[in-house]
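For the sake of clarity, the format in which proteins appear in this thesis is described at this point. The record quoted next illustrates the convention:

___
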Amino acid sequence: MMNEQAISLSEFNRRIGAAMAAPELRGVWVTAETVDVRTSGGHMYMELIEKDAAGATAARMGASIWASALPRLNAMFAAATGSGICSGIKVMVRVSASFHAVYGLRAVISDIDPGYTLGDLLRRRQEILRRLTAEGVADMNRSLPAPRPVLRIAVVSARGAAGLGDFMHQIATSASRLRFELRLFEAVMQGEQAPRSIIKALERVAAEADSFDAVVIIRGGGATSDLATLDDYDLAANVAQFPLPVIAGIGHERDRTVLDDVAWLSVKTPTAAAEWLIAQGMAELDMLRRLAAETVRLSSEQLSGRLRRLDYICAMLPQLAAGHIQQRRSRLDAVAEQLPQLVEAVMNRRTHRLDTLSELVEALSPAATMARGYSVLRVDGRAVSDPADIAPGAMVEATMAHGTILLTPIIEKTEDYI
């Protein structure tokens, strides 16, 4: 056994407590992330943690905000960020080390800087946007052509959520009575599971992309720190590259997420998303009405013009007919005047032709042929050209140019010798 005198545990804790009273451990500004925030007995308890570059917890300490300071700090933080102090946010707090003999070492929070929390949220959002821009996808969804009209809507939201109810109510009670085709794709819209859940819902929409004109992502407003879970790179990249226009209606007036920066259209609330859809539908109807009115006007003008032209033609028809008849009559008179000359010319051509044919016939006639020394032999009045056609002793009549004589032919047979 050692000779040193032992002290009680309470004495040991007292000495630790005395050490905690050192000035350098009191009123120190510390940056950390909050987890396990809870209230009890008017006090707020939490764990402050610090993560290393790999995301592992590098430091942890329990912290408290006593009831005497909690209303003031919570109200100040909510006024700046839109929510009270909660888990999962980065904070800058003024702390003093406190050691209790029973409950051990804690950090007592006496002040908080809301600007640090807001700055961290903004920094995270800007980092995501810079990454998407470097990858060349940040503006892809915003660059999609505007669908006309936008009536077939895929709605990504949590069933039963107040934001979804506001959206549906606005659509249903619109005086426009436009018929929208709405289909809900359920997703978790808050908490750490929200980004992955929304991505899965969008994947289901993409599988039926031809059935929709656009996608609406809606949820009601909430704590800025709660909405911060939507500042997720994977979710933002999915929305930025989605094949259909994405309309983001998330949060209230002062709330903003990275989805607002990459979506085709960003509106402040689910109700505003419904109002935009109704407004664009009404604009399309107004355009159709204007086109219909213009079509009727142009058709009426064309019809009136045709009717006026028809009336003019009807009025001019007698004069046109009379003029046409007079023109034809004048032409007939001209033809009648020219007819004797035309007939004479035709007769001359025909007479010349006949003369030519007469000369040809005369030149080819039997008389002309016989005048050249030829004769025609006939037996019993029948012309013959082959001696074999003349019977022995038959009389042959020979007709010449200047008369006819009778002949008794002597037919000698000749023999062919080989």
Summary: The radius of gyration is 59 Å. Residues 304 and 310 are 10 Å apart (CA to CA).
